Each structure stands twice: as structure tokens, then as C-alpha cells.
Structures
1.
Amino acid sequence: MTDKSVKKKAEIIPVQMTEESTFKFRCHKDVSCFTRCCRGIDIMLTPYDVIRMKKCLGMTSDDFLPMYTELRLLEKTDLPMPVMRLLDDEKKSCPFVRDSGCLIYEDRPTACRYYPLGVASLAQKPQEDESGFYFLLQEDICKGHEESTEWTVKKWREDQGVDLHDSINAGWTDIVVRKKSFPQDHKLSEASKQMYFMACYNLDSFRTFVFESTFLKRYNPFDPKLLERIKVDDIALLDFSTKWVTSTFFKRENPDPMFRPLAPQAG
Ligand code: SF4
Ligand code: SF4
């Protein structure tokens, strides 16, 4: 899904891969290109990326998003998504890159973890029997491809921790894939775009919306334990919010049982 190197598309040779496909690659501090891939690039952020990065930086999503991201519309979806705001220096550096490496390495975004793999699951929904659809980004600047360490796509995903990211982002991925399957002239209202963005990315605001507006009164009572959890747990809140977006945007006639609107009171 995420393409860390959108601006360098012309140099990329896409090679379709599956989980069992192999490639040779190793990135380490002694490569001559160390950190070059962290400059002049587009890094799209997933909802779980925002959760990890804001926590790592000790910020709320309300503060993190305007400071570190800018908005783009995701191709073929009309959905807004945050892209890392690069520094205004000569090389358009990622704000977290230093000569010694990535300042937030443990909490780096999904796209940085996948690299040099790209994921096409949002461009083309996998069939039931497919585990994914990947491609190798072979850019001239990246000397990691000259190393001899061999990986399968599956092993790389495990090593980079993307399995966890993908499973927590699954509800959001489903929203994007569904929206992508709509006719391209299907446009969302500005209010819907803002609601989608808040529910998927600005979880601290969404939490306030849930607990401090009339939101809870519009539905049958929620499980009190669930409400306690989403008050403090961003991952549980993301699961709740993506189910809500799916029910509101795509399944109005048959929403998730949690989000059946209260029947109007008689009299
Ligand atoms: S080897 Fe590739 S991924 Fe590693 S620093 Fe160099 S350009 Fe970046
Ligand atoms: S977040 Fe870290 S790994 Fe990703 S581009 Fe920025 S410095 Fe590089």
C-alpha cells in the first residue's frame, strides 16, 4: 500500500512478488547510501503509524498531525490521508533523520518498515486465496540490493514488524479498499472526509467526540467494558472507529450490530 518513494517512480522497476518470493537486501550503517532514502520522499502514514509516532513523541494526535504531516487525497479514493511533512532543507529531509539514523526507529512508519518492498493491496484487492501482492523497489541510490542477505517477503515482514501494523490497520485498509471499488466520480462531502479523517487518524479528537457529544445517545447502549477500554486504549478505539466508519459509509442498511441507531421514541 505505502510507497516510500513516490517521487522516484521513474527509477523504480516494479517486480510483482508473493510472500514466498525472495530478494537480496541488507541495510546497515556502513552502506554508502545510509539515510539517503529518508530524504526527498513521500511517506504516507497509516492510522497505527500515527498512534505509535504520537506516543513515541509524547504528543496528542491533535498536535502531531498539524506539526508533522500534510494532507493529501489518496489516489482513486477521494479519502484524505496524512503524508509526512518534510523539512524545508536542500534535501527535503524527513524530520526524524539524523546522520546516525532514524530518531524514531522503533516506532517508524509502516512504509519505512516495508522498504524496499512496496505493497499493492490497496491498488488491487487480493483474491480470497492470496496473502498479498508486493513489488520490489529497486532504486539506483539504494546499495542495500548489492548485499548478499537473502529474504523471503514473509521473513522480511516478520523481521520488520509489519505483520502487527497490518493487522491493527486491517479495518482501515478495508475502508480504503471498499472506497477504491466505487466509481471514481463518487465524491465524498467535505463533512464526510473530515469525519473519516478524525475517526481514522485523529483519535484523540474522535475520543472527545464520542464521549462529549451526543454520539453515545444515538445508538443502542454500548458494552460498558468496551467504553472503558476505548477511553484509554487507542488500538481499541481505532477498531471501534473503523467499524463505525464502515457502518456509516458503506453499510447503512446493515450496520455492525454495535452501531444500530436507536429507534425513535414513541409519543
Ligand atoms: S541501503 Fe537502501 S534502505 Fe538502506 S539506507 Fe541505503 S538507500 Fe536506504
Ligand atoms: S521515519 Fe525514520 S526511517 Fe522513516 S524516513 Fe524518517 S528517518 Fe527514515
Note: The pocket of iron/sulfur cluster (ligand 2) is lined by residues 38, 43, 94, 96-97, 102, 104, 108-109, 112 (CB under 6 Å).
2.
Amino acid sequence: MIFADRVLGVKPSATFKYDAAAKKPGVINLTIGRPDFDTPQVIKEAAKKALDEGRVHYTPSKGIPELRKAIAEKLEGENNITNLDRDKILVSGGGKQIIYCIIMALAGKGDVVAIPNPAWVSYEAQIKLANAEVEWLTLKPEEGFIPGEDFMNELEETNAKLLILNSPGNPTGAVIPERTIKKIMDVCVERDIFVISDEVYEKIIYEGKHYSPASEYENVITVNAFSKTYSMTGWRLGYCACADRAIIDRIDIVHQQSLSCCTSFAQYGALAAFSDEAKLAAEQMCEELKSRRDYVMKRIGEMDVVCAKPGGAFYVFPYFNGADDLELADELLEKGVGVVPGSAFGSQGRGCVRISYGSANIDLLSQAFDRIIR
Ligand SMILES: Cc1ncc(COP(=O)(O)O)c(C=O)c1O
């Protein structure tokens, strides 16, 4: 078989690869990008009820109207994004599928898409699948991977059409302060750059306050998902929102022609994510994750690494000065701890490893750090 050019330059997901390698007896798997909590019961019951009521058919491609209405209200109430209605919302198969549809709709041959370096592995792959070009904007370990002078200078020079922002961020856990996001947005407005704001970790935040740029800027598509907040990674539900309905309608064409619509009963389940019961469960999960983060930072303090305290998500991204991160990840796997090498996330991740505490309790983390430190 001669494969299409678009797929030849794209590697399989490094996080899936290292996760598979860490699934060995005796290995503590800290590669996993998901929380180890169950989906709140109220959401599961709502999905079961929808199944029992025979809600098993295609839904409108953008998503069931009730869910899109609830998302528009959430974005207005919690994120101060006031220029939306349900037609400006699109529900698709997880944050990943939404970002893929956006990139396919907005970027193509000759277009440049700027992403932070390091960044979540799928941005680069998806941009390449769209035949567009990636431009990396430098983040630095010593700045806690928050956009600094280098990032801003590179942004001011870029001829990118799109920029992807991600706060709280994967793989670093960094929460970008509101003032920094505004500085970035001002440059983007001036240079006519459209922004994809990936906010899938918005509710997993320990310090600082989440800021959605779409609350003040029009040139933004906001991306979110039910996956991380409600531990629904297997449900495959995410969404995007934009003040410009014509943009959503174009993205919907990619979504319609590839997926038609999301799983019907999963969408009815997701409606219950806006209940008080589900919100409480999400807050409790975040509290537990914060205890894990604090424990992890205490143990990281015992090592000679550069690692700013991450304000959100469930990752730490320590920098081991002078280390080869691929060798380090292999060596740690041999010693019984699975991590993802930092260079999988971009060249600025060299010398780092991504440690996820989303799926390991403090007891397991304690054993894992004993091995890492040894
Ligand atoms: C930054 C970021 N964006 C988007 C996603 C996609 O999430 P999902 O497709 O599971 O909703 C992930 C998953 O790891 C992520 O880390």
C-alpha cells in the first residue's frame, strides 16, 4: 500500500505508546492523561435513562439542542462569554475530535499554526494531517512554562493564521495568568491571528483563576470537554463555541462528514453534568488531585530538578538538567515507573519527563517517587 503523504509524516501518539509500555506487572504507570475517578453517578443514570427511553438514534449533528443550550448558559455564567447561543456551539467526539475538526476547517496547505513548545502531542500531529505548518513558540522551564519574552517576541514575528493556547496546560500544568493571556490576545488581534483556546483542564485548577479569552475577545474559539472535569474520557464528548456562527457552521461540516453526530445517550448523560451533584463530585475530585499535587511537589523538592509548582491539570514536568529524557524514561520504566519523555511534547521538553498524578493515589505516588529518587 502506498499511503497518503499526510499520514506519513505523523507519528502515533507518544502518550498512548508510553502508556502501553507501562502496562506491565510491577510498573507504576504515571503516563496516563486521565483521572482515576468514576464518572459521577447522576451522569451515568441520565445516560442509562436515555437508553431505556430509546434515545438511540442520530441526533442533530451539532448536538442535542438541550445540551447546546446548557453549554451556552455555562459559558455565559461561568466564563463570562456572553455572545453565544446554541447555534454557536458544536458538540463532537471529545476535545481531540473538536480540535481536529477546527484545524481541518481553518488550516490547510500554506497556512501556519502556532503552538506552544512544549504542547499536548496531538496539536502538531493534527496540524500536519491538515497539511499546514507548525510554528513552535518557546516556553521555558525556568519561567514555569508560562509565556515569557521569547514567546512574545516569536508571536510578534509570526505569520501564523492560528494560535493554540492551552491553560491549564498539558504537559506542564501551567496556568497562564489573565494579564499574560490578554497581552497575547492583543498581539493576535493586531496581527489578525485567530485563537483556539483549549480549556479542557479549566476546572482542575489549584491556584490562580481560570480566564477565558472569549469573554473579552471575538477572535477566539473556545474548546472544552467533559472528559477531564467529570472523568468521562471514555464517553468521547467535547465542544467548541465561537461568537461567529459561520465559523461553527464550517467546523460542523468536517464533524458531520466524519462523525455525523456524537453518541445519543452520552449526550443526554452529559446534560446531567450541569447538575449540582455533578459539580460537587468535580470539586471533590479537584481537592483530591490538589493533595496529590502537593505531595508530588514535596517529593520533587528532594531532587535536583527545575520544576515550578503547577497551578492546574494533573501533570508535573520536571527538568533534569543535562539528561536525555528518552533514556531517562526508558530507565525509569526498567526501574518500575512509567513516565512520558518530555521531547514527545516539543523540543523545549528535552530533559523533562511528564509525570501524571491523575491516576495514582498518594500511596502509589509515594512508591513511585521512592523509585525515581533512587
Ligand atoms: C490539552 C488537551 N486538550 C485536549 C485533550 C483531548 O481530550 P479528550 O479528547 O479526551 O476530550 C487533551 C487530552 O489529553 C489534552 O490534554
Note: DSSP finds 13 helices and twelve strands in the chain.
